[in-house]
TrEMBL record:
UniProt GO molecular function: DNA binding
Protein known as: HTH cro/C1-type domain-containing protein
SMART domains: HTH_XRE
Record lineage: Bacteria, Bacillati, Actinomycetota, Actinomycetes, Micrococcales
Organism: Mycetocola reblochoni REB411
Domain HTH cro/C1-type: 11-65
Length: 73
């Protein structure tokens, strides 16, 4: 089974390229700004739902902000 892991550095780079503050993206994605900071720093991994909300908030596909990660069966 393959799942996706967030690339927090990519999220931050895209957010900054779009001229968005952390608060702006967190509002778009419906998440706490502190949680977004942890995601961007790589100290947390989001659920599939949050990953999708971040992608929508940034206007990109999930594949742009994440990478495949094998999950042990």
């Amino acid at each position: 089974m393959t799942t996706r892991r967030l690339n927090g550095a990519t999220v931050r780079a895209l957010r900054e390229a779009l001229g968005l503050r952390s608060r702006d993206l967190s509002e778009r994605a419906g998440i706490d700004p502190g949680y977004l900071t942890k995601l961007e720093n790589g100290s947390r991994q989001p659920s599939a739902l949050i990953l999708r909300k971040l992608a929508i908030g940034l206007g990109v596909s999930i594949e742009v902000i994440s990478y495949p990660a094998e999950v042990a069966a």
